[in-house]
Helix-turn-helix domain-containing protein
Amino acid sequence: MSTARSRSLTHEDPADVDLQTALEALADPVRRMILQDLAAHEDWVRACGTFDLPVTKATRSHHFAVLRGAGLIEQRDQGPRRVNRLRRSEFDQAFPGLLAAVLEASGR
């Protein structure tokens, strides 16, 4: 069942994202932390509140919105939790090798 909260989520198709938007989303170190964490876990396991990030809850929400807007993540509500999935294959189709390069460089 769709809730008003989940209906407010918008997910950009990576194929519709321009390179500038993708690069700006990937440029922020907090967003790269989120992506690294998601890359290390199975889809739909990590809830927004479980990430250890050095930012406030409002700023955290902003970072997730930017990642959704760049086609990098997908989110859905599971009960009271909002869980996340890295859209690796879809993003790789739009920007081959970009995400892998960023994740590799961030892991150093």
Q: What stands out?
A: The chain has one domain: 4-106. The first helix runs from residue 4 to 7. Residues 24 and 70 are 9 Å apart (CA to CA). The chain has six helices and two strands.
